[in-house]
Records
---
Amino acid sequence: MSAIVKTTRTGQARGLRSLLALGLLAVGGPALADSDNYVEIMRGRALATAGDCVACHTAPGGTPFAGGLALQTPFGAIMTPNLTPDIATGIGSWSADDFARAMHEGKRPNGTRLYPAFPYPSYTKVTRADADAIYAYLRSLEPVSNTVNRNTLPFPFNIRASMGVWNGLFFTAGEFKPDPAKSEEYNRGGYLVEGLGHCGVCHTPMNALGANKSDHHLEGGVVDNWTAPNITNDAQAGLGKWTVDEVVQYLKVGQARGVLASGPMKDVVENSTSKMADADLKAMAVYLKTRGAAGSPAPGALAANDSRMKIGEAIFVDTCAACHVRSGEGIPHVFPKLAGATIATQDDPASLIHIVITGGQGAATATHPTAPAMPSFGFRLSDEQIAAVVTYVRNSWGNAAAPVTADAVKAIRGKVSGAAD
């Protein structure tokens, strides 16, 4: 696999000065701040960006990569570790072999097993050369002392030895294997999507043991009570109606086809994909557009005179139409389009329910710095009213999806932050 960032040694001194100015090399830190390793560090920085490492390993208001974020799992919260080169609390005592073992085998230097909340089932596909480059970058960071409690799961999930059984059932170690029958661009996209990007971790449903259902790969999942949509090429629920260029645009700026990235995807766009090379994004799009899947058959839309539709329409006109407009077309670059939007027709309506209850904000990127926002309506709409308006959105302007119940809204309201009683 070719390097994600192709760099020459031309102008090394100038590049080194730039790195020092940006704080990418820690003078006096574990990494050598000289022209022999800055190219590797820059390559590692790009790889870490593609892997979106900073999103999980940074606590709210904390120092980037210093850990302490509570990842919510079905089994309890897991605190993310400190990745800075602090000797006592970070990875300052780790060797390159130790880091590669964590990436490829899911084990700490002492052999203790990691939980797959750290996506080693995906990172095992990363080449050793790329793992070494990420290690070099992390070693160049300023060491931060931040002790993180790494044993927060309740019994019996806190027994890490049980991961040996889990690995035996669900984990296959090994680097990404290019398909010789496919193009270099396709294989590059596969390496990024299946490996560093670990897209399947969110966009694939999980079984009761927290493993991805391999027979439904990339067909959609649930993350923090948001729907991670189907990203196969399925025409009904996935990317079938999107062009390669539209997928690239969405990953680059967080907007395409009237859709705005929000929820967990907002962070992915802001921290990762918006900072990746266009060629890498195109490779990912090419790969995703070949991932065919037979989604659920399109249901029939509810009749306009259905009582739920009548109630939902009244709420939409009163509460939503000012921004999303009466036709559901939204306002380009400001308010998302609801007509024909896959967020409206996913089998799981969690994202629509979530955003009505708590509000939300779109991604802010270099080319689109304004992050459009939606206020919370959970404080004034009842479960029945939210169910009605979401049902209306899912069955208007050509959309067709199953109606939503008040019980479904109540269940999500009880889980999401910012929900009103």
---
Amino acid sequence: MTRSVQALAYARPSSLESTASGRLLGLETAGGLTPRGAEAHPRFFAGFLASPQIAARGLLAVADVAVARYHQRARPGSLDPVVTGNGDRLRFESFSGCGGVYARLDVLDEGLGGTETGHGTTNVDVNDPLREALSRMTGDDPMHLRVGPDEMAVTTLGGSVVEKRVPLPDRWLRGFAEAQVASARFDLRAELTGAEAVRFLRGLPRSQGRGRAPLWVVQAGRTLRPTTRPGAGAVCLPGPDRLIALERVLRFATGLRVYGPVPDGLATPSAWEVTLPGMRLTLTLSPDPARGFSGEGGVLEALATDEAAADAELIAVLLAWEPRIDPADLAEQSGLAADRVRAALTRLGTAGRVGYDVADATYFHRELPYDADRAERHNPRLVSARRLVSEEAVTLDGELATVVSGEQHYRVREADGVLSCTCTWWTDYRGRRGPCKHALAVRMARRGVVVRAAS
């Protein structure tokens, strides 16, 4: 697995302190991007939280996912959560070390007491002493939240005193993009009250068991009923133990919303959103506990086009850390067709520049501090497809194409805009995990890459 190291530098450790006016939760920030450009320690928020204890528990849940590996637990992973200020809310995000669970806590306008936030994205320090202090919090005494250095620290910062160096697997970066693409296909499938949500989640099995078929659930009256068959309205719950982070906030839950795609008979990703006073905590699960989001292939079609790269540059200029991105508005401003705007947003997602909010059914702007082209450069199928095109291994013949890979010849057929292939990958997944490298190479060839003429 390809890895790099991300260096996070904080002015001091985050902490929870008691003051004469209540508690002070100071979350320190690392380098990030804002409308003013790159900043070493951006400051996004300073104000009192409407529900301090709930916010503390929600932040702990996001931190739990950041340090978790739900598959092959012996290999720990850890990355400080990402925070984005969108003007009317704060979003705290993390990804599990195994790449199969994406977590996000949205602290909405009412949860922030109506105080506006800054705009931008950075990492926040969530260290072990802070986790212990947040875990011990009881009651709802007033708590002042500060995201970024205080005013005095802003003027006196002379250098970083806390540094963290964390491994950053390429599959983890690709997972952010794939989770966003998968979520954009979700619809609301079920909704429970707070009491029913607690009853259902606490009654789930702790593990799925190796080799067993995935669990499905379907709304039955006021609750959810487990089922082994993905019928109409069913939602896949692959690895129910991966929802354990939700237990942090269950006692405060006002409801549960479950999202997923139209079931097609095979395991699918799903999103589980606990609604809280002034907040939402959402966990998005990959289709299989042993399989992260990075290999799902939902972004490959967008990455395989040259026009998507140029379109993404144009769309990026129009983004302004909005909490809700309207593709129709972007199409009008840019002059691009709606499908090209969606492809551009997908491409921006591979660089962490947009995410998707299933509750609002819309994209939102953020700027993860990663190399914008890295996820694309290290995507194995995309790299292989480009190599096949450069080696002139693709021969086009109307709706058919032949791709030579090693000693094998693969036939790729197009029907209604969908490519199929005679390779093992296509036989196994039938396009459910994106196109194979041969189909990608054919798609590139049809879009203008020079190939030898068919005889």
---
Amino acid sequence: MDGVAVELDALVGAELALLAAPQLLDRLRGLLSAQNRIAAEIARTVRECEVTGAAEYDGLKSMQSWLRGHGRLSSAAAGRVVRAGRVLAQLPAVAAACAEGAVSAERVAVIAPITRDEHLTAAAAQGVELAEVDGVLAEVAATGSYDDLRQVVQHYLDRLDPDGREPDPTEGRSVTIARHADGSLTARVELDAVGGEKFCTALESRVQAGRGAGDIRTRTQQLGDALVQLCDNALAAGGLPILRTVKPHVVVRVDLDDLADPAPGPGAAELGFGARISAARARWLSCDASISRIVMTPEGVPLDLGRDKRVVTPHLRRAVEHRDRGCVFTGCGAPTHWCDAHHLLEWINGGETNPANSALLCERHHTKVHHGFRVERQPDGRWRTWRPDGTEILLGPPLHAAAA
């Protein structure tokens, strides 16, 4: 390992600006080959650590946890390294190609499904020689394109179960959304082949329609803009399902003073799903929007509908959503689009349709309130909840305080 470190130190010290293009590319090819060889050796070492239980030496249960803690890897990256070690242990020809620097860790991940227990069992039942498959995979992985390797692996897996049931396309579909502190989000989309084709076709139509001379956006930026445009079109068309009497729309809550003030006003406005944006961006959105003035008094928008209307109207609902922000049942807080607008004093018993007599409750807690539970808004705006026996439901102390 000391020798490897010395060689790397020499590489790091090289003056790249003095190299011509052919020399730079030759250097890069060598580095990529070395990267593949190092990745193969890491995977082989991790596998041996896993077999011998080496992680226990540092008090850890698995090599995946060791790689997260001591190797500073993410959970996903640690999992890939552990799986790579298992794959190379079962496919010696692929392992040899990796050791020579011809196959990358990314391509090993493509091959990995072949070594799953269910696929190995199916291959053994059909008399498939894994050594022959190993040799073919090593050749394709080392000389073919990434797509060639994916197709070969998928073809092999399909042949293992030619008479199996056609999979339900919805089983493999998922969208995972991670929201960040600044309101931005990261999404991971998993789709079956047909769903993926529809997704790509729709995005590509927007990308191509939006291309013009001088467009300097990257491909990923074009796709991101296309996705937002598809959402804009769907929302503007008005054909999406109605949510609790209100058509789906982007909600921006901002004080009138901030909306009128030309200052940027960072964090002055709140979006419907909780992200905060600047007043400047809220003004930008308001250029093409319907603006509702929400006043919790008899002036302004006529919020008090008296006794002539039983169903909460869209503008009244928006006012209640603005006030409650979600289900008011203690400990719930379900988002507004899950909630009904509940009459605290039932309409049939003389209750009026106005903000003072309305509360947002999700379906579960709306049912609870109609079966003995009770919610009540205090003068300071806080909501309290009581059980049918009259005892109040209270939130416990913070976990760190409870543990103290």
